[in-house]
Known about the structure:
Elements: H1 2-10, H2 16-23, H3 27-33, H4 37-44, H5 52-63, H6 74-81, H7 85-91, H8 95-106, H9 109-119, H10 124-139, H11 143-155, H12 158-166, H13 168-184, H14 193-216, H15 224-238
Amino acid sequence: MTEAMTLLSRDDEASVDEIAHAAGVSRTTFYRAFPSRAALLAQLKLEPEPDARQRLLETAAALLQRQTLTRLSMDELAAGAGVSRASVYRLFPGKAALFRELLVVFSPFEPIMRLLDEQGDRLPEELIPVIVVTAYRAVAPHAGIARTLIVEVTSLSEETRQAFAQTGMQAIARLGSYVQTHMDAGRLRRMPPLLALQALIGPVMMLVLSTPVLHDAGVPPTDAEPAVRQLAQLWLKGMSPL
Length: 242
């Protein structure tokens, strides 16, 4: 660890081979002591710059608008954010961790789960419009990123599947449970909860994703939040029990 600290203080992008050579040990010995390079950095507590995380997320979001997560180069990400490769792996040990953080920061999943924690006892006619507006406010400023995240999630790669399971699937399960509870109580029409959520989410996402395109085509902008509330009311009307 002493040799690693000395080497990394001069070159924070030093590889496992370089670290092992400086310490006079083999790669096998290195991996017996540390399961990964990131584990060594964690042990050494080499902290990245305070704003490095945000810079990396913003750079990753920009890069993912023109390439897939699978093709994303961590070296390109580091260079674009102006941080070292070591700092990238210190903050995000792999692409799954990076994508999970992108979902947390740029998707509506976390705000929706907080809302359900705080107001999950409210009736659908009260809570559903609040959920829809909350989701819209989380996504609307990052429409391009939202589109990219949807493409990545539906690609079903290992990195995105793992990250989505830890974020999006939890939010969908919580929201599905809320809808199911009110179906069981006779307040909402009975149908598969996932289908009901797709009917709620789909029009809102269409509004978010189509707005920039329509703006470029010269179509007058829609007053977004009233439109989102109207979509929520249409959903509630359609979900009224027969």
